[in-house]
């Protein structure tokens, strides 16, 4: 496996003015980053600001902005996705790329390195780039290796000649290795592993094996690898908007064919536009259900482009366009129904859901689901239309019987004043919103006890529900909360819902 690692450096400054970035470390202001002029002046990272000013009186000093530095590194990580979708951050100034199977698309590793240098130059950055068999090998070569890329077959020889500091161990261990005469990685490789572990710990030997390519670990990319990808690269940057839409249509057809061969459908799609100046724009499209219909995907992509608050600016043009499936699942071929009208209606509803999700977002398009509970306040809920939450079975009404529950409930239930003939009986009359209602008919009680197994402590006290009808024919669903004699206070009555 071949992996690449690049290290970003500071932007351009006048050659005669050294620039250093400082931060508070170990109780004082110290240099945490330098430019090339400061490096030529002999100002190392870790030196105190006072010592640096004494050595270079005309020093330019800037406070280190960790947040802005990370944002820049994330922009760089997005830019290098032009070469591979597997990119990870390496400390605070580097990137690690897994370019397995990608280098040949750019003319080999040398061609990829040249294109990467030009791409970062458009961002105003210079890079130090190296290739290695493992992430640790690439990191060591980028930080401590020669300026030129290691040719095939020379990597092991060059790594063995690197300083022991290339392992990235603490300063104390690096100094101890030098005092023991172990100044290069080749010196360490020649010593027995057991003796090194006993003296310096197992972490040193683990890093040594990984740097020498004897042990490999996979990187953890910033973004999970898509389920499948199709892309189109251009020999000259593309600036025409109509051509862009035509290419998107073609990519949608290709990804639909790929999903069909795999027997899958996509839930979440992403279009990525790589601009010639290194900027990257992403558009995501989420389906209401798994689909591989290219027409639907194309329609949603065009709708997404039309509704952008910040229009897609081609700038100097796009170098490549990539269409990915971020989430897929098995999708069996659909059998044509004899009821073409029903099939057309189902397709229209699915298309409407997709358009609503694309325009407003998945969290704003909701569906109702039933919950397996006897508590009426928990029986129904809303969830995003694309979520995987399964709905319980809705209770089937008895044939010819009125509904047992109102369609809509008050949240919270509204307190009412009642008069009952017996303590546990239904009310004879009640007052709600200053209106007195005389009861003509009542059915109940239906006792609903709290769900004792819940640990959130939000389950209400025992309730006795009654379905009642007043002399005007209006039907209500009321309950008495609490039991007589259960607590010192008398039970209270509430109106929970209205029947249609």
Features of the shown structure:
500 residues, alpha+beta, Alpha-Beta Plaits, Dna Ligase, domain 1, 6-stranded antiparallel beta barrel, elongated
H/I helix tally: 13
What percent of the residues sit in helical stretches (DSSP H or I)?
25-40%
Return the CATH topology of the largest domain.
Alpha-Beta Plaits
Shape: elongated
Strand content: 25-35%
- Estimated radius of gyration: 34 Å
Which CATH C-level class of the largest domain is it?
A: Alpha Beta
Q: How many domains comprise the coordinates? A: 4
- On the 0 to 100 scale, the average pLDDT is 84
Main-sheet strand order equals: 14-15-16-17-18-19
